[in-house]
Design a protein that fits this description.
Oligomer: homodimer
Number of strands of chain A: 10
Strand content of chain A: 5-15%
Helix content of chain A: 40-55%
CATH topology of chain A: TIM Barrel
CATH class of chain A: Alpha Beta
Shape of chain A: globular
CATH architecture of chain A: Alpha-Beta Barrel
Order of helices and strands of chain A: EEEHEHEHEHEHHEHEHEHHHHHH
Radius of gyration of chain A: 18 Å
CATH superfamily of chain A: Aldolase class I
């Protein structure tokens, strides 16, 4: 479950609330494409904006539409008690694995983050992936801490943010982390623009926002990586530069993917939970052009 | 209500959950000292770690013990919908004012933060203070945005983080912001080590973590500021350098104030909601020494 393409769909939230039919349409693209896993309620899945009953419902819908594809559910919250309740809910609806980001309000210390994971691992029976995303959680992991947490029974993967852009530096970075991890704990790349470099550097899985909406496009890349076709991986990612450029332009992927989902007719273009707001009409038009010209699918 | 000393108590959360008797003991220090307002469920009040029913209960307890002192309730949440529900709850229990930090998960844009405040102001009938705390919310206000929001009817104060350490620069900074604000909207300083400089630079209120536990000590400073005794304000704050040093040493005030509340016997020294953890025994001993030697009260 912690290899290949892990597709992270967005959770459309329109003026009328959670758009369940839209979410199901997004899920169906992922299952049709044959992703290796589905990561629901990640950052782009807007978990931070949704209440516990909504998160439980969304995980249940994912499970009921995923067929044989494992579903990984993010259980992030600033409160440890709430993380445990969310983990209970996710397990109740059949989550195959959990993803835990150490979301901070007060800046967390290393022993506090270790304690958070230790508490979760004592509480749950499904495997867990460490979600390292300093841009949203505001916590910077050291490799040493990753290694310490990864030795807790049940930890199976580490989702890292981007890698250095140089292939050599990226390989050094991935190998340095890998040397800290027990056998069987995979490293997954996120930060879609880094995916090719990360996969070529030894990451075994792409935790992919792109794959949440354009799973066929993303799967070409992970399939090429699985065959060891490093140059092809780079070429396929290079072709997507206009998409990575949109992510940079709009300070991240979420507003771009929300607009793209609307452009594809899967939900509305205004499908972000408030206070987040949709991009301007001209920005959405630019996104529509990129989706069409790159034939993203 | 938006002048003088606004005391921000911590919310003790022990292994057994919210420590209501401990919280009441902390409130009683504030009311006995005659603070000008009480700001409950601020950052040090751990609002981010508490659930909606807990937050409503804590606001209600504050109201029932505050006597004639106005109670300001923080209604921060990453979700606008949740902010509105929290505001309803706070108004229901009699909150005299609300405090809103633009808590971010995805980095917010200026128009999104304006939209958040606009939505709140259309929803509530009590006055609101803008809570500018980039260290925890991850949103940096511009003065222009402060001014735009402050013109919404019902906005009555802006709580700013520290000011420049030079008195001249601090005065320029406060005057620049003040020139953007409508008549009657006060500026309040937070970041306790900056309080003296901020008050002398023209801030009309100290939103004070120190005042949440040591209200007599803090009130000496705001009283001196109200009398225009600038040198005395500086002297009183200089005397507290060991306390400001502890805040710096421990990456903020919350863990220090939690330890101090335990040292004073008001609650347990382990009174932080997980994943936050108490400081070490030796750190707590150092805090006890500072509380005693400075005669903080």
């Amino acid at each position: 479950m912690f290899t290949g393409l892990s597709a992270f769909p967005l959770t459309p939230v329109t003026n009328a609330g959670f758009d369940e039919p839209g979410f199901v349409r997004i899920l169906e693209r992922i299952t049709s494409a044959g992703a290796d896993s589905i990561g629901v309620l990640g950052s782009t899945g807007s978990y931070a904006y949704l209440r516990r009953p909504q998160r439980s419902r969304i995980a249940a819908i994912a499970k009921s539409h995923a067929g044989n594809i494992p579903v990984i559910v993010c259980v992030g919250s600033v409160s440890t008690d709430e993380v445990l309740r969310l983990a209970d809910d996710a397990q109740t609806v059949g989550a195959d694995a959990l993803l835990l980001p150490p979301v901070s309000y007060q800046t967390l210390r290393e022993d506090e983050v270790f304690g958070l994971f230790e508490t979760l691992m004592q509480h749950v029976s499904v495997p867990v992936c460490i979600y390292d995303n300093p841009g949203t959680t505001r916590f910077e992991f050291s490799d040493e801490l990753h290694g310490r947490i990864a030795r807790l029974p049940g930890i199976r993967s580490v989702k890292i943010p981007g890698v250095p852009s140089s292939p050599v530096d990226a390989r050094v970075r991935v190998q340095r982390l890998k040397s800290r991890l027990p056998e069987g704990v995979t490293i997954g790349i996120s930060g879609d623009a880094s995916a090719a470099t990360g996969l070529n550097a030894g990451c075994e899985v792409w935790y992919s926002v792109c794959g949440g909406l354009f799973p066929l496009t993303a799967k070409e890349i992970t399939d090429a990586a699985a065959r060891g076709e490093h140059e092809r991986v780079v070429q396929l990612s290079e072709r997507l530069q206009p998409l990575w450029g949109l992510f940079r332009k709009h300070g991240g992927s979420i507003r771009v993917m929300a607009a793209a989902a609307g452009v594809l007719g899967l939900t509305e273009t205004d499908c972000l939970p408030r206070p987040l707001r949709p991009l301007s009409a001209s920005d959405i038009a630019e996104i529509a052009t990129v989706v069409s010209e790159l034939n993203l699918k």
